[in-house]
Amino acid sequence: DAGVTQSPTHLIKTRGQQVTLRCSPKSGHDTVSWYQQALGQGPQFIFQYYEEEERQRGNFPDRFSGHQFPNYSSELNVNALLLGDSALYLCASSGLMNTEAFFGQGTRLTVV
Amino acid sequence: DQQVKQNSPSLSVQEGRISILNCDYTNSMFDYFLWYKKYPAEGPTFLISISSIKDKNEDGRFTVFLNKSAKHLSLHIVPSQPGDSAVYFCAASGNNAGNMLTFGGGTRLMVKP
Hints:
The complex is a heterodimer of chains A (112) and B (113). With 112 residues, chain A is an all-beta fold. Chain A has strands at 5-7, 10-13, 19-24, 31-37, 44-50, 53-57, 64-68, 74-78, 87-94, 102-103, 107-111. In chain A, the strands form two sheets. In chain A, strands 2, 4, 5, 6, 9, 10 and 11 form a seven-stranded mixed beta sheet that branches. Chain A is globular and about 40 Å long. Chain A starts with a strand and ends with a strand. Chain B is built from no helices and eleven strands. The model of chain B has no long low-confidence stretch (mean pLDDT 94). Chain B is mostly beta strands. The termini of chain B are far apart. Chain B has strands at 4-5, 10-14, 19-25, 32-38, 45-51, 56-59, 62-67, 72-77, 86-93, 102-103, 107-112. Classes of the chains: A mainly beta (112), B mainly beta (113). The A-B interface holds A 4, 6, 31, 33, 35, 40-45, 48, 56, 58, 90, 92, 94-95, 97-106 and B 4, 6, 34, 36, 41-46, 49, 89, 91, 95-106.
């Protein structure tokens, strides 16, 4: 079982650019959530996808959008990048019975 | 408005002794609480959880205590081992663990040999 996998592991973008991060959930999981973890802080919920629809959303602007595919994998898109978007982006998956969320290793985004 | 708080940013204990990590919450709608451990360059790893209908849950060296009236939970690690050195996050959710998690800021635990 590969667990939750995220790609890429690191990337550097310039202010104003757009970025797409990818996540494959743990086998058997159908729900994917995305979190942003700024340095020295706990993860903050961005949104959650289930059955290819956004089910819940945290306090993030519309520049943050996502998608879930029929195979349950997911993408996080961020438009018009700001320096403050620099963070570790974590993907978490959970199952139909909503057991504890399993996290990927994260994507470290640096905006310069 | 931080709904989940971990007031101790760091904690240092001697190997073999007890580690106690604390967490406070303000939202009375939270009914499921989890602890995650995070090593550098890795994602958070689930440790242990507790439902609001319980006041204690134990798994090996890890025990979580919940005091609903005080809106406080704690994680006890006995005995502490150097491999336990990591950042520990407390998290809470409104119904079950698969839904939106609200995290505390984390406590860095250092277990000295």
